[in-house]
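Quick start: read one record
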Amino acid sequence: MAAETQVLVDNEKKYIAKFFSDASESDVKKVDISTLSWAKHTITLSGAASPNFKIGEVLSVGAEKYLVTGFTAGASTVEVVGWDNTNKKATAIDASSSNGDAVSGGVSGSNTRTYSSIAEQDFNVLVTKIMWICNGLQVGIEWDGSGSEAYIAELSGNGSWSMPGNEWPGIGINASGDSGNVLGDIQFSTTGHGSGDSYTIIMELKKQSGYDIPAYEQNNILGYPVDYLLGNFT
């Protein structure tokens, strides 16, 4: 038996993935919204940053890389997203940096402060499209929440569903509780699974808040030139 996820699109505006499984599943997490590309996180430093970070530069913290998306002069926090520096693209955040790691920017250079911690920001997404083929079983799709979970859809047979317009903007998160940072994650459960049964589901999410490209215009007040090209850290 196998289960797999194929990511088709993952940018600052939307996420589209194909999910396949021929296994029995119960509350299996398929989407962790904090790990989608351009998911903003806040790094806390040991004190006020000096020098200022540049919006759009890559930070090296221990063995990890982050892209600066927001910063206020003299602050002890900096807003970042995960960054694949080899391929120059946003990626899932890697929160494995350790307290006391040195912080160095691709433009700003070595900082006088060290890394203390990283935290998720608030993320909000809408489910806007689903296409499915369920062979011999049903699939329940839910928003996760540490307080309560909430159904997005119960799928059987074949079909498609779309909410592309303003009058029908999409299905929002209506679960509750974010202990463990689970609120809004998406999980699947199957019912009636038997030998040879499977599902294929394609789902589109619209990223509402908590995801964005760098605010380059803020570089004016940080003492750096404004340029709007990713890679301006070299």
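The chain has no helices and 16 strands.
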